[in-house]
């Protein structure tokens, strides 16, 4: 038995040595590749003229070591200076994938995204990540950080504004859940939220749920509120009106609308303790009351998650 145990230990030791040797050999290959790639990067940086020859040096580095983020970054920067913006953006994205803590890649990608396609959501995500990394201690330019903070706020407002025309006649349960869980965080802190579902349920001057269309929408809302992602959360049901009629009467009308929604939900199994009503009358329009369509958008109930 002792002899078998010794033989087993020797066999295991031999296997461990072989595995270690293989890992050392693999590491040596990677080190040689990285040194060769670095040499090509250094050659390109020595040119420092954004020429085709410089970009070829970085491309050669990438061929040698495709995972070398610095080579991709230098190529992206040179392409950006040559106004080859789409290709530069692709390379910055590759840097972001390979080295997700390289703050300047996120900043440059955000700037190019705005310049080439004006995709506010993608650009905001890039600038937001740049700010997160900078706040966490990544090397950054102070002026760029201030600018990025301003751009994040500006793009958030733009995105929110662009969503205003997207009032739907009907939201599915999945769409309502997505709206009520949407948020952007930085460093664990929520900095932007869009947890507000506007529902069009009422005809002009009426507190009654408007027929089959309203019933269908309310059924989707009930299904959303029973979704596990919203389980246990509390919501305010905010009633609104357009500006036609007396303001005092409109405040009362908006309260009746909010109560009608709450009562419908409670009757169908939603815990009453999760729901409260608030009335705003005509005082919080989503749009100016200048067209019939805008007045319809203002004649709404909004479902808003409450902070616990």
Features:
alpha+beta, Serine Threonine Protein Phosphatase 5, Tetratricopeptide repeat, elongated, 11 helices, four-stranded mixed beta sheet, 60s Ribosomal Protein L30, Chain: A, 308 residues
Question: Can you walk me through this structure?
Answer:
The chain is an alpha+beta fold and 308 residues long. The chain folds into two domains: 20-163, Tetratricopeptide repeat domain (Serine Threonine Protein Phosphatase 5, Tetratricopeptide repeat, Alpha Horseshoe); 173-305, OmpA-like domain (60s Ribosomal Protein L30, Chain: A, 2-Layer Sandwich), CATH 3.30.1330.60. Helix content is 61%, strand content 9%. It is built from eleven helices and six strands. The chain has helices spanning 2-47, 52-64, 69-81, 85-98, 103-116, 120-135, 142-163, 173-180, 211-225, 247-267, 292-298, and strands at residues 183-186, 189-193, 196-199, 235-239, 275-279, 301-305. It has a four-stranded mixed sheet with strand order 3-6-4-5. Helix 2 runs antiparallel to helix 3 and helix 5 packs antiparallel against helix 6. The model is unreliable at 5-10 and 12-26 (pLDDT under 50).
Poorly predicted regions: 5-10, 12-26
Helix content: 55-70%
Biggest sheet layout: 4 strands, mixed
Tell me the number of helical segments per DSSP (H or I, 4 or more residues long). 11
CATH C-level of the largest domain: Mainly Alpha
Number of domains: 2
Summing up helix and strand content along with how strands pair, one would put the structural category as alpha+beta
User: Kindly, what is the distance between the CA atoms of the first and last residues, rounded to a whole number of angstroms?
Assistant: 65 Å
Give the overall silhouette: elongated
β-strand number: 6
Instruction: Report the portion of residues in β strands.
Output: 5-15%
CATH domain fold name of the largest domain: Serine Threonine Protein Phosphatase 5, Tetratricopeptide repeat
Rounded mean pLDDT score = 85
Biggest sheet, spatial arrangement of strands: 3-6-4-5
What is the CATH architecture descriptor of the largest domain? Alpha Horseshoe
Order of helices and strands: HHHHHHHHEEEHEHEHE
Q: What is Rg?
A: 29 Å
**What is the CATH superfamily classification of the largest domain?**
Tetratricopeptide repeat domain
